[in-house]
Write a structure and sequence with these properties.
By secondary structure, this protein is of the alpha+beta class. Helix content is about 35%, strand content about 40%. The protein has a 4-stranded mixed beta sheet with strand order 1-3-4-2. The mean pLDDT is about 90.
């Protein structure tokens, strides 16, 4: 599956538009990670456990979006974007979305 943030894929022609596809995941913080994050706030620096969690969350959201596109018979997603939102205290959603298309 090709994913691009642009409205077109360079060198390709869009032959069919299937519509918007999405993929999301909701993650919660883990108390153990919160303790480490609290300590990092005192001394500064990257909170690697949260960075890793966000990378995994984005990958999972993209995989789900690609699955939805494949279910429609698409071979690419154009105008792909991410958005995040807080669902509840300590829980966030990551949403990947774009337009499922077929390419020539």
């Amino acid at each position: 599956m090709i994913n691009v943030t642009t409205a077109e894929v360079p060198g390709k022609t869009i032959t069919a538009i299937h519509g918007m596809v999405t993929g999301n995941t909701i993650r919660t913080k883990v108390l153990f990670k919160d303790i480490g994050a609290g300590l990092k706030m005192l001394v500064g620096g990257e909170v690697r456990s949260y960075t890793k969690m966000m990378i995994e969350s984005r990958e999972q959201a993209v995989a789900r979006m690609n699955e939805a596109a494949a279910d429609l018979g698409a071979d690419a997603v154009v105008s792909m974007r991410f958005t995040t939102s807080m669902i509840a205290a300590g829980a966030s959603e990551i949403l990947a979305y774009g337009t499922a298309v077929n390419l020539e």
